[in-house]
Amino acid sequence: MADRSTKNRDEITVGTTNVFADLGYADAGERQTKLRLAYAINQILESQNLTQAAAAELLAINQPKISALLRYKLEGFSVERLMTFLTSLDRDINIVIKKKPKAHSTGRIHIIAA
């Protein structure tokens, strides 16, 4: 007979595309948006092989903030600020507002890094 811990490990729970919603965060949409924006920023910074000091100078913030961004510690960053960082990195941001599909119970935010 399998013990309780083995049984729980074998169970699979299918989640949504937003882990923050799955974990029950009230601000799940904002957290997911920040994460995707930060991921895009971090990919750009990595591709440019910048030091944290150089990245901080480029984005006009201090090095500890760059360290937090690179580690996805995003509490101190707004969505607007992250988008400003992307424009500072020579990226365009397009925001499209449209009616949600009937299949969705609420509107959603999608970020696509091209």
Describe it.
The protein is mainly α. The chain has a single domain (23-114), classed as 434 Repressor (Amino-terminal Domain) (Orthogonal Bundle). 50% of the residues lie in helices and 0% in strands. It contains six helices and no strands. The chain has helices at 4-10, 19-22, 28-47, 52-59, 63-70, 79-88. The protein is globular and about 45 Å long. The model has no long low-confidence stretch (mean pLDDT 86).
Task: List the SSEs and their pairings.
Elements: H1 4-10, H2 19-22, H3 28-47, H4 52-59, H5 63-70, H6 79-88
The helical percent reads: 40-55%
Secondary-structure element series? HHHHHH
Beta content: under 5%
CATH topology: 434 Repressor (Amino-terminal Domain)
The shape is globular
The total tally of domains equals 1
According to DSSP, the number of beta strands is 0
Structural class: mainly alpha
